[in-house]
């Protein structure tokens, strides 16, 4: 029986598909079509377990948010495309009465209205309650102990203001220019993967939000929407940048870059902090509870070495990428090229020497190397060196990671950044409230920005400068002496006045 | 029908007023008079929602504490004053049986007696339990994450004493002189807005408390009582100062200043840290829960941009105020002029050069720019520079924010302050216990002051000097490395000896 | 009727006494005798309320622990001693069925056995559970926010070891000499007041414990036992020191000092950190709940100014004591004289210049000036200055406050102390377990001492030196930036693996 | 009656043994043989109580895990070996229905499967739940307040990365060489005592795990398995080292060392941080609750002075060991000799001068001297001094304590270590999951290592160097100012948006 001709009119039946439900022969249905993934399974970047869960069944709902539309076309050999299935004959999975999902639906019913969100943290609080657990785990997780992920915002708390008073701040203009593009406020929407996990429409919602507030969106390589969908969602003149994972096959990379340039992208951001995609244990744990409950073997040889994933990924992301590839990039595009993920001053200097237009000081949102320093800390290390050499205008500096308040943006600009990238907060706003959420999140930042520009005593961003901040504690990575457990336990803490139980009369 | 003539003898009926209960036509009753606020509503600094809640009804109770008596006279056009209403015809709002309010009344019934308050924190603890939630939120809130608000007191904890021993401290005199006025103890009651939120009598209670303990009161521009009420409450010879928000209309400002001088004010404190009034999210959230529960629209276009408030406020507070306005102030009054809200040494030097008599190092109680440094930290930055120039006696330095203990006052004086301003603690004492509360709060400070002057080994405030304190950690803004969540989770903490369950005999 | 003749055989009746139960006429019974305290009441250092509680009644149980036996003899005029009462006629107070006391008795029944205490903290944990609340509050409380009280131990946690290895430590000798007296271990039992609050026998238990372990006891001026009782409890050759509060009446002081010398005391420690006894709010709160529950007046004029207490105390402790009194002390005794409570290097230098034999760097256990630095921190400030001048052997340095571990003792000795004073831990051991508790506490310290001398690589205390410790963080008084409340709230912490709910078979 | 002849065929009866159940005559059964321990009891390093618990009974189960197989042969005089007992006549102890044990068995039944462990902390979390309380207490406890034990891992959190980007890291090789042996990854299994407490097979499981991952195992002197059992468990060519406690009797030591050399050990690690074995209170407390519940005497003279234990141990571990013994060690073996437990730079220099091949910077896992610094901190102190002298290649530096992540290993190597020792994590993995647990733990480290080598931008361990880390905060031992209890209590924390309770329609 040859099922490989997709044009054939005879649809497969659900019963036929259902027979192929094992590691030996594994078919799955996606969007009404059947695919034989038996051979592909061991190479699946997400592991084979999750595929086996849907062996012989309809996997569309699980597949959809985490794969761009053209995934199967690109990565599964044509002869494994077995043609259409008659969906009316496919048994509908009786959804188990999942109490966790019921609780989530209930939380959604009572979720706070949008007006109750007063800052970017609030969207995260709501998203945590209303998102699917696995989606939340994917967005919210970081590397190892998530120290760097949290440090990213915490670092801003070590920077304090030295505001000026008695400056005319009636009119405040916080617009600026990034790589030649005029924007309303000095942030851009940075690239984040798998937007459909949070919202069925995916990254195009961010495109619309960016348009509304006149800021730039950086399009991710690993988007849920295809690149063209995201570009198509932009309006005339709306500027987008491209975030690039460099493929081992440079022809593919070249095609991606040149296509982006043709479609009008105004900047190429090469990710350099991810030669291998990070382990995120919160994410792994959430997936385990999803698929692992039928695994009972604790024997040593059943240990998943994750080598499949590592190997599979290596075709998407080339771990051999190095400084000697830079000239080639400069040769294939006229877009400004920036490095995303630089983490020390030596590499910033080298980027300048290579003739690049900028760097993003970033640790990938704390998702790659734990104990990498925050972008803002690295910025404070970098700028004095650049100024000493008179190089501060030869490059545009950006930082991302941990930005949650307009004061954070102002701190970065005081220290010399051209702008900041913001990622997760918009994902959370989008996941909880869709476009209105993104809209409000951006508006809140604008409101905060106007207020805080006034309060620091500056009416334009070019007035922001290092004398307005105190960063003396920024590079201190202190832990305190482990707690005096017994001492704290025996200490009888002071209390406030207690309720009066008055004598009965 | 023309209601604009206030002299008319025909009173309006409650039923007539009740018809105007919508955005299209909105009348409200205040103190037995009717006002048409339909057109004014969008400009209301507090937003239109809160007005709509009282459309067609008696708003007196809500209006009273947050508007000085002459507000409507001043800000609502005369033709919108529709005359008196026959209050007997106004339907009494059946107060809903609010369980939260019932719980509060119960807490009031069992509130601690005044003698149970042993320090200034205690009044705050009681006030938190017995105040209306919205009033508490207004007083207790700060900017953004309230980091600076808390840092203000926390900063004092970074200053430690180097006390002298074997000094004769039998007689301790901690009186001092502020702008030429002799006071019993080196603090003054600083300006805080909306005193009637905490106590129906408002700021005059503070006037009486200040009198009793011979300290100076600074009268706030945004008081609930009118300026003259507060001055009238003072006794002969009692000294008051004026805190000034500068109006865009300088004629109004001039009138305020010169009126204050005529009424005997002895100092003019121009607020310079509030070109725009801060966003305080705790306050916003508390108001939302008060008025927002009938809002069901989560759409993006219903987002309240708060522009109404910003615009409205800008007539009260001029964001264009700048150094070049200072000579004009010097020309319109003979009162000493001080800047309230200076936050870095450069601006202190400039104030001296402008011929001003003093500055208050302040961040507005942490209600304006979050991550502004504490006044006491700025003081430690300022004084060495002044001393180096020999300028330390050309100006009087004050600090406010976070003062809760006599030791805090002593620390400020050791570092060079002439005195400190205390605000919230007296508001909380007043809100919980009225004048006796304020009286006890001040007395507790005096008791602590006498004790601690002895213990530091000084019998007069002019003996306080920098060698008596260790400030080496003051300017360090440290956060610790984000917590080792897993490590802390698996650590099995030491415990104290457990109860013995003896063997049965 | 004249009751003043104590020799009269006619005993008073309980009924007669019971009539004098008011502020106007107030009699109390102590140890079977009646006293008229009507006039004395306002001068009572502990306030009049507590006396009124026992007006017309037997106050023995309350009086006993907090007054030395000869108090009434000394401080109440003879004509107020009204003679004996026939105790059989005195109505026994029906003890209310106090649920708190019942719970305490139950805790005592199940208290851990002594062997379960493995360190000094453990005695505090037990004492907290089994002591009377007021007694616990008196012992455990400190000044203001109790910051210094806690810092005292915490400071030791900032000192880390640089131990030597491969040193022969088979035989470890940690005995030393203090003011010429050979002791087994370099600590002494420092002076603490009111020992009978914790144990009916009072300070003599400490005398016996000190004897057993061959350490010195410092006898407190404010002991529950009389001075002579404590000296009598010592065995032949057992060394004791005297802690002295200097009385305004120097004749009294002289008598005390010379009596102590005659009785064999070998050191005079003049307390210099307490010109006024500290306010301890935990103590005040505990007393309030004991006596204040019938007070319903919250009016301002009922405020207790505590002036009575301050005035009364001033006869016991002279706040005018100063450096110029030192020569007089040197003239009245041959005992070595040391200052207890010195808190900065300048005063140590002066003490040397005055010819004194030593100082105790101390802040009175954190009970006087809050934010005074710990003794151990001051020691690290003092010794380098002394060594620079070559004065390190001209004086003996002691520290007290916060010592809980032998490692603390070793740290102090490494930094230059001759020995350390330990107070509260022995009080708690005595309160929980009596003499066996004190014995075990001291033995535990000896066991720890032997172990840790070995582990730091020293076989005698004279080998302890500054290179064995790292004190670089000792003088840093850091607080962290106020917590990122919202950020911490939204962070989803990592968790350890969860229980497996295996599929049912 | 003479029972000393082991060859006799007449077995003893259980009833006969049961009579000897007191301090006066105490027999115990181990592995079917009877021993008279009456005289030995007071010398038992573990105290006499635990022996008395089994007087007249079968002690095998308790004895087994904490004594090497040849213990009784070695330490009990032959005439106390009373011969075999007829086990059928020994009364089986009715195991009490211990609710704690039942709960533990239940936790074991639901323990997470091995795949749920994603990092080394996870094994500790599982082990804590499934191990016997006393075994857990022995493994997990540290000295005094366990400050150093926790600092060991915490110290790594003060070291942050300065990663390089754009380095070709396709192939990552993290193998290295230790004392000439090629290993897969730069850690070794360090020596830890009493392996059978966690797993009935004991240390041989670690031998097998080390083999599988090609790393070195250090054999502990105090293993549960005998030395030869552990060597026998190794496969051909598998390298092991010997950890040595030096016996007072140097002949015994010589025999141990030379036997190890003959059996092929490739390194001798002399423990120098334990002249006396540490007090670990968590361990003591857990043992107390096991044996102490029938003790009711709280009298002072029943205090266990622990002198028995100290004296007994002193025959195993010689506290007089010193630098002058080193030449002797060099004379008796050709194995490289290293010192384990060096804690300051001075002693590292001396070790080099003595001609030793290496040191382990270690504080014995925080089990000996509390407030000893972490090995990694000492390493940062040592290496600059060595480099200054050009001595960095004259010795191999190792660190142990607190290593939990591959990033920790990388940090140590960046700072100059040749490798790190890991102990407890493998014990916990073994205790929870046996060999598969150890296997997975090691594999996880390898996975992390590969990933993080890539992310730091190094493809071989010899590229790791100090410029890749920021250690500026490493040597800061900070505590924060004691908490502002009242202030924190009255602060009303910010909250995230609350659930919406919508108006009913």
From TrEMBL, chains A, B, C, D:
Gene Ontology annotations of biological process type: lactate metabolic process
EC identifiers of the protein: 1.1.2.3
Listed Polar residues bias regions: 289-300
InterPro entries, per the entry: Aldolase_TIM, Cyt_B5-like_heme/steroid-bd, Cyt_B5-like_heme/steroid_sf, Cyt_B5_heme-BS, FMN-dep_DH, FMN_HAD, FMN_hydac_DH_AS, L-MDH/L-LDH_FMN-bd
Residue numbers spanned by region Disordered: 87-106, 283-304
Gene Ontology cellular component terms for the protein in this record: mitochondrial intermembrane space
SMART domains: Cyt-b5
CDD domains reported for this sequence: FCB2_FMN
Subcellular location: Mitochondrion intermembrane space
Matches recorded under Pfam families: Cyt-b5, FMN_dh
Boundaries of every Cytochrome b5 heme-binding domain copy: 9-86
Main location as per UniProt: mitochondrion
Catalytic activity line of the entry: (S)-lactate + 2 Fe(III)-[cytochrome c] = 2 Fe(II)-[cytochrome c] + pyruvate + 2 H(+)
Cofactor: FMN; heme b
Quaternary assembly: Homotetramer.
Protein name: L-lactate dehydrogenase (cytochrome)
Natural source organism: Endocarpon pusillum
């Amino acid at each position: 029986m040859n099922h490989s001709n997709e044009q054939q009119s005879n649809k497969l039946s659900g019963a036929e598909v259902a027979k192929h439900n094992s590691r030996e022969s594994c078919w799955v249905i996606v969007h009404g079509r059947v695919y034989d993934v038996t051979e592909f399974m061991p190479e699946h970047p997400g592991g084979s377990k999750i595929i086996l869960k849907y062996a012989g069944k309809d996997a569309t709902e699980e597949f959809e948010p985490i794969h761009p539309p053209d995934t199967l076309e690109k990565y599964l050999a044509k002869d494994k495309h077995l043609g259409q299935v008659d969906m009316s004959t496919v048994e509908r999975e009786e959804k188990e009465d999942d109490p966790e999902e019921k609780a989530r639906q209930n939380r959604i019913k009572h979720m706070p209205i949008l007006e109750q969100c007063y800052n970017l943290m609030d969207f995260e609080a709501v998203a945590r309650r209303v998102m699917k657990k696995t989606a939340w785990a994917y967005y919210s997780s970081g590397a190892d102990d998530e120290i760097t992920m949290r440090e990213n915002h915490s670092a801003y708390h070590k920077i304090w203001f030295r505001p000026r008073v008695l400056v005319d701040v009636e009119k405040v203009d916080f617009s600026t220019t990034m790589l030649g593009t005029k924007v309303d406020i000095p942030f851009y929407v940075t690239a984040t993967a798998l937007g459909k996990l949070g919202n069925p429409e995916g990254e195009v919602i961010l495109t619309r939000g960016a348009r509304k507030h006149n800021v730039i969106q950086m399009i991710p390589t690993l988007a849920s929407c295809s690149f063209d969908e995201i570009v198509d969602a932009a309006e005339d003149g709306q500027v987008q940048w491209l975030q690039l994972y460099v493929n081992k096959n440079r022809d593919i990379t070249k095609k991606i870059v040149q296509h982006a340039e043709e479609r009008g992208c105004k900047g190429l951001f090469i990710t350099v902090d991810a030669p291998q995609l990070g382990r995120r244990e919160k994410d792994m744990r959430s997936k385990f509870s999803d698929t692992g409950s039928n695994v009972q073997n604790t024997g040593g040889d059943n240990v998943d070495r994750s080598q499949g994933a590592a190997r599979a990924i290596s075709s998407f992301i080339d771990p051999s990428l190095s400084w000697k590839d830079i000239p080639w990039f400069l040769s294939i595009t006229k877009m400004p090229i920036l490095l995303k993920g630089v983490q020390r001053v030596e590499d910033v200097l080298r980027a300048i020497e290579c003739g690049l237009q900028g760097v993003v000081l970033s640790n990938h949102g704390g998702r790659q190397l734990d104990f990498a320093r925050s972008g803002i800390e690295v910025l404070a290390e970098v700028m004095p060196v650049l100024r000493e050499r008179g190089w501060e205008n030869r490059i545009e500096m950006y930082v991302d990671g941990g930005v949650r308040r307009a004061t954070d943006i102002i701190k970065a600009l005081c220290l010399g950044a051209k702008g900041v990238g913001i990622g997760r907060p918009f994902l959370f706003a989008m996941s909880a409230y869709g476009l209105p959420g993104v809209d409000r999140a951006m508006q809140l930042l604008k409101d905060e920005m106007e207020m805080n520009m006034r309060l620091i005593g500056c009416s334009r961003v070019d007035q922001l400068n290092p004398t307005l901040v105190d960063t003396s504690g920024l590079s201190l990575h202190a832990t305190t002496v482990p707690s005096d457990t017994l001492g704290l336990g025996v200490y009888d803490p002071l209390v406030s006045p207690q309720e009066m139980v008055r004598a009965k009369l």
